[in-house]
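Protocol step 4 of 6: structure prediction from sequence.
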Amino acid sequence: MKPVHCAAVDLGATSGRVLLGAWDGRRLRLREVHRFPVAFGSLAGHDYWDVGTLWQQVQAGLSAAVSALPAGAKLASVGVDTWGVDHVLLGERGRLMFPVHAYRDPRTRPGLDALAGDRRQLARLYAATGIPNIFYNTSLQLAEALTCCPHLRRGVRRCLLLPDYFNFLLSGRMENEVSIASTTQLLGVGSEPGWSAAALRHFGVPASWFSPPIHGQTRLGRNAQAAAPSGAEIIAVPGHDTACAYDAMPAAADGRDLYISSGTWSLVGFESDTPVLGAGALAAGISNERTGCGRYRPLMHVPGLWLIECVLKEFSARPATPSAWESLIAAAAAGPRPPVLLDPGDPGLDHPASMRRAIDRQLRRHRAAPPTHVAGYMRLVCASIGRGHADALRQFELLAGRTFSRILMVGGGARNRLLCQATADAAGRPVIAFDLEGAATGNLVRQLLALHAVKDLAAVRAQLAPAIPARTYNPSY
């Protein structure tokens, strides 16, 4: 079989990358051709993404992908995935009509608190959307924007989530993909995905800003007038990077694997034909997001390695190489077990001016001494995230009536042996950590499915599994 070459644009909230994938019918080979930092900037008390710079980096990465092709080969397709909830508001001709805020911007706090205080309305919205009240929800962001700038109702024609927007720049088509749409708290939780009239009405968002959601395996075509690489077809893969990462998981067919995509956040969940709803699910903060094909992906958001990334900014000896990271992890593992763990869900850790001071304050409230060195913070954060993973597993088993026999982990956290072991110990289940570019691999798999180069997701998972390096961490106590 002649290899099929595809490019995956994978944008995370702290770094972005473009990878070139080559599928020969048996094996998927990945090559990273471009990597760049991703960070929001603050201005006058608010946080924004520089989407112009992100777009330049995407273009540079796609040019690098074309240059990296073997002689005589052509790029068959391009797919884009990003983090969830953030979006652009566009005018009649696709022009930006409002600054692109970052999800950690504090502007949603008044709306968040108001909804939290209305328990009856909160329950109604959860029953309608399956998404709990979380500070970063697109719904809260849009409600704040419309309150602050009511003229947006007249000028805005479309709302696109970030992967939808980059698809538009590449293909010329404005579409809303289902997995990324499910992060908004505006998509209905019914079996056939569609926008929730109740949620749109509550948050005051015009229904005309959205189009019916498409599946994350849709061919958007080629457009010579757009910015796609010559000849490449643009495919709307699952736009949410977590949905892509889940697609890449070499999961067992019995449904007893719990998934963790570990990075800035830890997204803990599983795939299901039905949502997990009700008062208990709302109290636990379960988000019923969607896979690219519209199935349910119940998950819980556990604050992840962003905690240690922020702490490291306050130390001069930040690791700069893989060996330096391993040395830090080894030093942390050799230290004493923390007597008190953090509550990663404490709002004080969402976006503090100093993460180290915020952590120290929480520890002192529990009469525990803060760490005195960076290795101590690493041990504390990994143990706390591991317990968060275990708590999520137990909530799912209770509320979904399932028993999980293994935990599958991908992402940056899968390369952190301290975090993997902490998760296994807290959960009492083996953790299988895959050395896998999870989101990028799932992105490429969905492109191959759209191109009919592979049969179905189950088949390609089975084919990929033997070639993925993995390490098992068994509970140590």
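Step 5 (inspection) to follow. The chain has a mean pLDDT of 94.
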